[in-house]
Amino acid sequence: MNAQLLWQAEDVMRAVQGQHLHEQSWNATGVSIDSRAVTPGDLFIALQGPAHDGHDYAAAAFAAGAVAAIVARQPSQVERNAPLLFVDDTFTGLQQLGQAGRQRAETQIVAVTGSVGKTGTKDMLRLMLGSTADTYASLGGLNNHWGVPLSLARLPPAARFGVFELGMNHAGELTALSRMVQPHVALITTVEAVHLEFFDTVEKIADAKAEIFVGLMPKGAAILNRDNAHYARLAATAKILGVGKILGFGRHAKAEARLLDCTATADGSLCMAEILGRKVSYRLRVAGEHLALNALGALLATVTAGGDLDAAIAALEHFVQPKGRGLPQALTLADGQATLIDESYNASPVAVRAAIKVLGQSLPPPGGRRILALADMRELGATAPALHAALAEPIIENKIDRVYVCGEMMRHLFDALPPELQGGYAADSAALAPLVMRDFKAGDIITVKGSLSMNMRLVVNALKNLSSEHIAQEPPAQRAG
Question: 327: burial class by Cβ within 10 Å (0-12, 13-18, 19+)?
Answer without folding.
Answer: middle
